[in-house]
């Protein structure tokens, strides 16, 4: 995935240079190959997403339970649609409506990301409320040795909210990484569905950043937000 989006970004950056046509063509071919390969590897991901959805139905908190279960189910549908598109690309299902299936896949992926972001916002809201309560009960000493910053946090308004949000995300790296990844992933479906049009450069950059976060959380499982 990181290779695919890197090719997308590089081809976008150099496609206007007259002497780079062959390089752009090779990058786009490699991007296409990576995309097809990813679709093939996803054939088993539908089952994995359904198993994950079954697991999240056991969560005690109703909001994460609903958001994560809905996200996994939508992702399972997305993987299924993507598998159908892969069958079409290799000639096993030549008669399907590619545009319709691609639109369904994008909508499922978009809904899955929205559910993930809703879960992230719930976690942030809960920690914001917890921080405010602890600040009150501990005589404004929620963060030791940060009295000046707390005085700013106590002030009403956007500045205090953003400072408090920054401190919470800084103290909870898994939540920050999950939020960044979901926001970056959102650029693709927003553009495809016409909700917010960007360009391949933006989508490629966001895809690279999201992929790096995913690789980082795989290498350090303790930084992955628990589901």
From TrEMBL:
<keyword id="KW-0962">Peroxisome biogenesis</keyword>
<protein>
    <submittedName>
        <fullName>Peroxisomal membrane protein 11A</fullName>
    </submittedName>
</protein>
<keyword id="KW-0576">Peroxisome</keyword>
<keyword id="KW-1133">Transmembrane helix</keyword>
<keyword id="KW-0472">Membrane</keyword>
<dbReference type="GO" id="GO:0005778">
    <property type="term" value="C:peroxisomal membrane"/>
</dbReference>
<feature type="transmembrane region" description="Helical">
    <location>
        <begin position="201"/>
        <end position="219"/>
    </location>
</feature>
<dbReference type="InterPro" id="IPR008733">
    <property type="entry name" value="PEX11"/>
</dbReference>
<dbReference type="GO" id="GO:0016559">
    <property type="term" value="P:peroxisome fission"/>
</dbReference>
<keyword id="KW-0812">Transmembrane</keyword>
<dbReference type="Pfam" id="PF05648">
    <property type="entry name" value="PEX11"/>
</dbReference>
């Amino acid at each position: 995935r990181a290779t695919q989006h890197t090719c997308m970004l590089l081809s976008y950056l150099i496609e206007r240079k007259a002497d780079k046509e062959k390089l752009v063509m090779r990058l786009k071919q490699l991007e296409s190959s990576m995309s097809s390969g990813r679709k093939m590897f996803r054939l088993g991901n539908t089952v994995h997403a359904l198993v994950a959805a079954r697991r999240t139905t056991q969560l005690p908190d109703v909001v994460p339970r609903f958001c994560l279960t809905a996200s996994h189910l939508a992702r399972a549908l997305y993987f299924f649609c993507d598998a159908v598109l892969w069958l079409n690309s290799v000639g096993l299902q030549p008669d399907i409506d590619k545009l319709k299936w691609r639109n369904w896949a994008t909508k499922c992926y978009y809904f899955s990301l929205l559910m993930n972001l809703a879960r992230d916002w719930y976690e942030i809201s809960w920690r914001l409320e917890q921080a405010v309560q602890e600040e009150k009960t501990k005589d404004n000493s929620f963060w030791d040795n940060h009295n000046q910053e707390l005085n700013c946090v106590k002030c009403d308004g956007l500045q205090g909210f953003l400072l408090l949000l920054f401190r919470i995300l800084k103290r909870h790296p898994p939540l920050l990484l999950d939020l960044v990844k979901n926001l970056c992933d959102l650029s693709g479906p927003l553009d495809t569905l016409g909700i917010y049009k960007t360009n391949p450069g933006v989508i490629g950059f966001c895809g690279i950043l999201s992929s790096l976060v995913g690789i980082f959380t795989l290498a350090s499982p303790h930084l992955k937000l628990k589901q």
